[in-house]
Amino acid sequence: MPLPPITPDWAYEREHWRRGHFRVAGVDEAGRGAWAGPVTVAAVILPGSAQDYPFRDSKQLRADQREEYAAEVRRVAVSWAVEHAWPEEIDRLNILGATHAAALRALARLDPPAQALVTDYLKLRVEVPISAPPRADALSYSVAAASLLAKTERDRVMTELDGPFPGYGFASHKGYGAPAHRAALRELGVSEQHRRSYAPIRALLGRAAPLLEER
User: Fold this and answer.
1) What is the 3-state secondary structure (H, E, C) of 173-193?
2) The RNase H type-2 domain covers which part of the protein (predicted)?
3) What is the pTM of this model?
């Protein structure tokens, strides 16, 4: 049987609050494993009142729930920001480097700024205290809130990319390696929205078949 979903709490934030760091930003990303489109990072500072929220790891929720709760995050947050790292940056820096770069850009946009961070195992080089436990998107309200913004914003971007890049199915699979995406790549070739440093895309680019020429 599947394990029951984990309910977030404020344990990691409280550790920072005890040290006088009351503006704690949760940081999370969406799209690291996708073959196309950006990796998207959100940073969110929630009010330090330790109240319960319906926010959960975005992977535990339906699309309509994610949209509803993301709107609530934007409404209640002290500050929030979302940043993208696009395929060119991912190919230049590698996916971890690009994720870090987007996270730092998002944090730089927070107003007021964060005094401490909780991230989903993203070990950023920052000048404020940081907690980076695994599965923080399921354990921390702040990181769950960030996961909702990152996921919904990236899904919106991928749906919009379906127009200028027809035939790939970005609106349905959001750039991940679904069978329909693989089939479209074989038929249409590699677009500028594909991550050329990723092994499946490199393999396609390395073949000589005319249909796999870059367009």
Assistant:
1) HCCCCCHHHHHHHHHHCCCCC
2) 22-210
3) 0.92
